[in-house]
């Protein structure tokens, strides 16, 4: 029984990082209907930027993280303005290919600049700092990730539901031409969307980096975040959160009771099953575009 509870706790913990990456992808999808496969590498370069500020410039943690968040937002602005917006008559497939190209460029740059060796991120909470509740071990870093995911989810849900910018993003997703007619500056909305998404991804990267810090560190969280987004529904913020925790728990139980070698495969099996049974996701629904 203790082993079961421990696996569930670990699943919830790892699900928090999946939730953050899934949130970042859903933010862009809600506006453009394009999955951003460069999301992991955008978080990657933000994490290495923070490490550079902390180790090479000896900045305080708070200042380094603040500048990293500013860098992440500006990175999102730049990628949308300089690359995505310049695409001529883009379709969804073309935009997906562009995001994959951005992913490869950023990965190559980080590998060239910082090397492929494992690095150490100076962080006040180590990956092995834990609480002990009875016979259950709970990592402090995982608790911090859980709190950050829930806070961001709540903030983004309220933002999209009640703020003018959030409503403008939803209008841009449903019909960008109609949104322009009623005065929504869709280009500016898209740029803001990429900035917010990059910021959320940077939070995920910073919370993952104390555990692993190398150029490929975001591939698994990004793929699992995408799996959670598909499972929960690419337009549902609460859905991606619930799905991310479900995914974390399921893969931990699968690894503990069936086979650790096939633990990673579970996420993609779930994607296939969900797409076959409910293509819109478990917590989303198809909508009719309105003018």
Task: Walk me through the structure.
The chain has 291 residues and is mainly α. The chain has a single domain (2-277), classed as ABC transporter involved in vitamin B12 uptake, BtuC (Orthogonal Bundle). The protein has 11 helices and 2 strands, in the order H-H-H-H-E-E-H-H-H-H-H-H-H. A two-stranded antiparallel sheet has the order 1-2. Strand 1 (130-133) and strand 2 (136-139) form a beta hairpin. Helix 6 packs across helix 8 (186-208) and helix 9 (219-232) runs parallel beside helix 11 (265-277). The longest helix has 31 residues, at 2-32. The radius of gyration is 19 Å and the shape is globular. The chain starts with a helix and ends in a 14-residue tail after the last helix.
What is the name of the CATH architecture?
Answer: Orthogonal Bundle
Multimerization status = single chain
The radius of gyration is 19 Å
Mean pLDDT: 87
Span between termini: 54 Å
Q: What class would the helix/strand composition place it in?
A: mainly alpha
Biggest sheet: strand arrangement: 1-2
Q: How many domains, as an integer?
A: 1
Q: Percentage of helical residues?
A: over 70%
Residue windows where pLDDT falls under 50 for at least 5 positions: none
| CATH-defined fold name | ABC transporter involved in vitamin B12 uptake, BtuC
Q: How much strand?
A: under 5%
DSSP strand count: 2
Q: What is the C-level CATH assignment?
A: Mainly Alpha
């Amino acid at each position: 029984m203790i082993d079961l509870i421990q696996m569930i706790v670990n699943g919830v913990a790892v699900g928090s990082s999946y939730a953050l990456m899934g949130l970042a992808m859903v933010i862009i999808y809600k506006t453009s209907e394009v999955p951003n496969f460069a999301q992991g590498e955008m978080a990657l370069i933000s994490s290495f930027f923070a490490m550079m500020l902390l180790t090479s410039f000896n900045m305080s943690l708070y200042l380094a993280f603040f500048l990293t968040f500013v860098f992440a937002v500006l990175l999102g602005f730049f990628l949308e303005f300089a690359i995505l917006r310049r695409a001529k008559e883009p379709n969804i497939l073309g935009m997906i290919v562009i995001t994959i190209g951005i992913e490869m460029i950023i990965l190559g740059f980080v590998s060239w600049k910082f090397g492929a060796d494992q690095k150490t991120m100076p962080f006040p909470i180590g990956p092995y700092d834990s609480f002990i509740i009875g016979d259950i071990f709970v990592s402090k870093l995982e608790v911090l990730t859980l709190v950050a995911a829930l806070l961001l989810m709540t903030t983004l849900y309220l933002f999209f539901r009640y703020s003018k910018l959030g409503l403008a993003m939803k209008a841009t997703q449903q019909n960008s031409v109609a949104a322009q007619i009623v005065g929504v500056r869709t280009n500016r909305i898209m740029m803001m969307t990429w900035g917010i998404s990059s910021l959320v991804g940077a939070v995920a990267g910073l919370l993952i980096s104390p555990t692993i810090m190398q150029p490929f560190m975001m591939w698994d969280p990004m793929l699992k975040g995408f799996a959670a987004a598909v499972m929960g529904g690419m337009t549902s913020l609460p859905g991606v959160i619930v799905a991310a925790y479900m995914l974390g728990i399921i893969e931990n139980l699968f690894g503990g009771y069936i086979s650790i070698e096939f633990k990673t495969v579970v996420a993609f099996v779930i994607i296939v099953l969900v797409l076959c049974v409910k293509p819109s996701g478990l917590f989303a629904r198809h909508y009719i575009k309105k003018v």
